[in-house]
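Backbone-to-sequence.
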């Protein structure tokens, strides 16, 4: 299932989401054109075995890794999800949207690190941050409908799926994959996805409750 668009946008004007997408695309371009891409990954990706909480420099990759990607499919899928779900979430968070985005990505990276602290495999991508946006969307807009491209064997169609159903399905796939694939295998940081989604969900729940008491 590939989400295509939200059927109900709160605002047609968005600043942070396009800026983040452009920044990711620019960094990906720098990756592709770098004279030594492996050195870029080694320096800015999150490598658990190199994390030292007594050395702030080793914590920078919790943020910088969110703007690196491992290939065209990786960045396209992340930016598509950010575009579809991020604009309405930005309308709620406004100037604080980057806090939600980067914070969710950092916590997702931390969860992955805590599960496998001695891993030498570079972790990179906006998936944890985007997952935080999905968690926030699940909180604020569960009844919205998402136009979704569905493939059933050779049959292709577009249907409108309630956001709560689509995002719950996505989250359970991440949980199931995390339970099936041993840590360090599978090539995808499922723990970061789960941690990012949970972060976006929890802080949005708190934000919603605080806002509703005013």
């Amino acid at each position: 299932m590939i989400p295509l668009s939200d059927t109900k946008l709160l605002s047609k004007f968005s600043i942070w989401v396009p800026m983040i997408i452009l920044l990711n695309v620019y960094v990906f371009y720098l990756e592709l054109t770098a004279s030594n891409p492996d050195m870029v990954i080694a320096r800015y990706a999150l490598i658990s075995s190199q994390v030292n909480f007594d050395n702030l420099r080793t914590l920078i990759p919790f943020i910088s890794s969110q703007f690196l990607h491992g290939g065209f499919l990786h960045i396209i899928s992340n930016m598509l999800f950010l575009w579809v779900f991020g604009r309405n979430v930005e309308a709620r968070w406004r100037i604080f949207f980057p806090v939600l985005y980067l914070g969710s990505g950092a916590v997702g990276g931390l969860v992955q690190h805590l599960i496998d602290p001695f891993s030498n495999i570079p972790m990179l991508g906006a998936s944890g941050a985007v997952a935080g946006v999905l968690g926030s969307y699940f909180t604020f807009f569960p009844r919205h409908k998402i136009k979704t491209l569905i493939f059933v064997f050779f049959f292709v169609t577009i249907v409108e799926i309630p956001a709560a159903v689509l995002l719950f399905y996505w989250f359970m796939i991440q949980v199931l994959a995390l339970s099936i694939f041993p840590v360090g295998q599978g090539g995808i940081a499922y723990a970061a996805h789960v941690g990012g989604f949970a972060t976006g969900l929890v802080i949005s729940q708190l934000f919603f409750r605080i806002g509703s008491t005013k």
